[in-house]
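Attaching the record inline, Q. Sequence:
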Amino acid sequence: MDTPQKFPNESGEDRIVYVRPVSVDDLPEEIRAQTGESDNLYAVHASNGDRLALVNGRRLAFALARQNDMQPVNVH
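Structure, as predicted:
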């Protein structure tokens, strides 16, 4: 597997984000109440593990990352 190339942003942080599927059942109740009929969402995480976003769809997660000048990497 290729190691993603790191691209530092203006603050010196790398610009890689990790996209992974998340089961709605694993989310807190207050978030589950907002998910509608979705069974699986995708989380976008910073390299330090912080969740940056939770979206409905892998393509949307990748688009969101790229729109914010981040390099998305798929996590299984």
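The beta strands are 16-23, 40-46, 51-55, 71-74. Confidence is low (pLDDT under 50) at residues 1-9.

More tomorrow.
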